[in-house]
Design goal:
Number of domains: 3
Helix content: under 10%
Low-confidence stretches: 1-29
CATH superfamily of the largest domain: Glycosyl hydrolase domain, family 43
CATH architecture of the largest domain: 5 Propeller
CATH topology of the largest domain: Tachylectin-2, Chain A
């Protein structure tokens, strides 16, 4: 375990910068202190980008305050052990800080939610609130005895002065809701627990964009063949009644790059919040090792991003820690955790966090520290000596002055304004722009004496050109809408095997260019009409002379965010078989593999199963071991999985959406990429479809009833397709 901690610490050492002096600043008075929304557009992912060249994305960790820890458990009722799975807010007048934090229970002691205040975020006061008896006296800062975790929300739409604050805390049976006029004196709401599920790790926040309460909590599911902690989401407008959690984030195969044997990565929780025009998640990464029944290992924090708060993406590349562990032997070398949200003050993001000197499941001591980050500084697009460019997607509603958050002190940055067709707007060409050569979070872009974007040009594009500079974000007014780019060719491959023979199969759809196939083993085209589902030809598979028979469909490793897999299948047996697969036949199905299984007898699985992103979705019982053709389909719609048999929906489930489905090898039909542990399929396959769209239930019914050739011929005659 020490080896892994050292690797984690070493992997982020290159990013640690000297921490500058901290100064207390004020937030705007009257604004909800947890509302971090605004009009800035961040380059933390590729959402804004139509094209880029000679730039790299760099992720930046929080810089830890040199005087950490800023708060320790030095009172008798704290047991020398405190942490913040809780909340820090600025005062309602924009001055100072208010913190709700927790003790760690020992033996027969209860945990407590405590309260502290500070004028500068470094020096903290624990007021004697006189509310609850602890250790024989009420001279303490306890706001809720027996409480565990504290998500405190100031309720901007609440008219009742006695219910201005909402506290969600973990009780004995779930998450309890309490209200308060001042954030100190809380009263339980009826019908607790208000929220069930979420494990022992959940964080709640008020989303100012959707005007509802949102929670991201711990749920457990099978990923890559092992039980894992994952992140679920639930949302409500009524904090006394929360719906069940939906899975939104799970570990992937890349997370396990460090692991072997029973080691595996878990997602222990996530602090998520609306930030400027998007959502930011501080994701708790738990590298767990099974030690005599206990999961032991370090916990550190990575970045996750979302544009709607539901579909999440994670860092590309090596996924460096955004809040790393401390150096070996430090007060925070075992685990770090984050509160419900950070604070933004002027040019700086401030994050108060928990640090522990031991790993999960070990005897530990918790303290609270402070870390800072440049505003919008989670990631930047960087150019070196070679000129780099970033072209945005079309922006509707951009108006007024253009502000840029950039570090160009050692180089320069310029901006060109283009119309929707990519033509430079007169007066706003690159040569017209005054180069920015400074370092600031809100620099004004000018084109000669022009300091506002051109009127009457909407939508427009922004083309950033820079050398030896880093670009974090920009602001082009508070009404910008990012428009979708024209869709490219859709993945489309259909094999009816008509006009094919022997070991040749031709793609009958050419939206994205013909997909080549390769017949493997005993697979070949059968020209006996009695063996065809539609038409005269089908593909026959299975032979006593070959160990494997399958067909590879090349160019199908990138399935994207939506796809449909379908085929007519007639099996001579009743054994479990693959309808589609990219499985390597080595261990559990990984998150970069896909398997669509069918079990005609229902003895092993209910009937159908899709394993995607390492998570399986099962159908209700379906039996089709009758030697007849059956249409089997799986539809994936950005995380939603729907299974069909003979045109009828037979199962549905969810896997994490957001990130596209990218496989490490192409799809194979009625077999694996290599000989697997299941038996060889024997029978016939017809109308094999791989489509980069999520077809509707009506579409699937039409495919099953009339065949794919008729379906696509009819679709081609629709007015919108002419």
């Amino acid at each position: 375990m020490t080896r892994r901690v050292a690797v984690l610490a070493g992997s982020v050492a290159m990013f640690i910068l000297p921490v500058s002096g901290l100064q207390a600043q004020s937030m705007p008075a009257g604004k909800n202190p947890a509302d971090l929304t605004g009009a800035w557009q961040l380059f933390v992912d590729d959402y804004l980008i139509a094209a880029r060249s000679n730039v790299v994305r760099t992720y930046h960790p929080f810089e830890k305050y040199a005087g950490n820890p800023v708060l320790v458990g030095d009172q008798p009722w704290e047991g020398g052990n405190i942490y913040i799975f809780g909340t820090v807010l600025a005062g309602e007048d924009g001055k100072g800080y208010r913190m709700w934090y927790q003790t760690i229970p020992r033996h027969d002691e209860l945990s407590s939610i405590l309260y502290a205040t500070s004028t500068d975020g470094v020096h903290w006061t624990k007021p004697n609130l006189g509310i609850y008896d602890r250790k024989g006296a009420k001279d303490n800062n306890v706001v809720l005895p027996g409480g565990f975790m504290a998500s405190v929300m100031l309720r901007p739409l609440e008219l009742d002065a006695q219910r201005r604050y909402l506290l969600m805390s973990l009780g004995k049976q779930g998450w309890d809701a309490s209200v308060s006029p001042d954030g100190i004196h809380f009263k339980d709401l009826p019908n607790n627990p208000a929220c069930k599920g979420g494990g022992d790790s959940a964080q709640f926040f008020w989303d100012p964009r959707t005007r509802q309460y949102v929670c991201f909590g711990k749920i457990v599911t099978q990923v890559d063949g092992m039980r894992r902690r994952c992140v679920g989401r639930t949302a409500t407008k009524d904090p006394t009644s929360w719906p069940p959690f939906d899975l939104v984030l799970a570990p992937d195969t890349f997370d396990d790059r460090w692991a072997d044997g029973v080691h595996r990565t878990n997602l222990y929780g996530m602090s998520a919040f609306a930030y400027e025009t998007m959502y930011i998640g501080l994701l708790w990464i738990f590298r767990a090792t099974d030690d005599e029944g206990y999961l032991v290992g370090p916990v550190y924090v990575e970045l996750a991003t979302s544009r709607d708060g539901i579909h999440w993406e994670r860092e590309d590349g090596d996924r460096p820690a955004i809040l790393p562990l401390g150096k070996p032997g430090s007060w925070e070398d075992g685990m770090v955790y984050t509160p419900t949200c950070p604070l933004v003050e002027g040019d700086t993001i401030k994050l108060f966090y928990s640090g522990f000197d031991e790993e999960h499941s070990r005897p530990m001591h918790g303290k609270i520290g402070l870390a800072t980050l440049r505003k919008d500084g989670f990631a930047s697009l960087d150019a070196g000596d070679k000129e780099g460019t970033v072209l945005t997607r079309r922006l509707a509603g951009a108006a007024g002055g253009l502000l840029v958050n950039a570090a160009a002190g050692k180089g320069w940055l310029k901006v060109e304004v283009q119309d929707a067709d990519g033509k430079a707007v007169a007066g706003y060409r690159l040569d017209d722009c005054t180069p920015l050569a400074g370092d600031g979070v809100s620099q004004v872009v000018a084109w000669g004496d022009r300091k506002e974007l051109p009127s009457g040009v909407s939508p427009l594009r922004l083309r950033f050109v820079m050398k030896n500079a880093a670009l974090y974000s920009f602001m082009a007014g508070d009404s910008v809408t990012v428009l979708d780019e024209a869709a490219g060719p859709v993945l489309a491959a259909l094999y009816t095997f008509e006009d094919d023979w022997g070991r040749k199969g031709t793609d009958k759809l050419a939206e994205d260019g013909a997909q080549e196939v390769a017949f493997v083993g005993g697979a070949k085209v059968d020209d006996d009409p009695r063996n065809s589902a539609f038409g005269k030809h089908a593909m026959g598979l299975g032979s006593e002379f070959t160990p494997i028979s399958t067909m590879e469909i090349r160019g199908t490793a990138s399935l994207g965010r939506r796809f449909t897999l379908a085929a007519m299948v007639k099996t001579a047996g009743s054994e479990l078989f693959r309808v589609f697969s990219s499985y390597s036949a080595c261990g559990p199905v990984r998150t970069n593999e896909l398997v669509f299984d069918a079990d005609p007898s229902g003895k092993i699985i209910a009937g159908l199963r899709l394993i995607c992103k390492g998570i399986g979705t099962l159908s209700k019982p379906v039996h089709f071991a009758d030697g007849k053709y059956h249409h089997l389909a799986a539809v994936y719609d950005d995380g939603l999985v729907v299974l069909y048999a003979d045109g009828d929906e037979v199962g549905r489930g969810r896997v994490p959406g957001g990130e596209p489905v990218e496989l490490k090898r192409n799809l194979y039909v009625a077999g694996d990429a290599a000989l697997g542990t299941i038996g060889q399929f024997n029978g016939y396959v017809d109308d094999v479809l791989v489509l980069g769209r999520a077809l509707s239930a009506q579409d699937i019914q039409a495919l099953a009833s009339n065949g794919a050739a008729a379906f696509f011929a009819k679709a081609a005659t629709k007015p919108e397709n002419r």
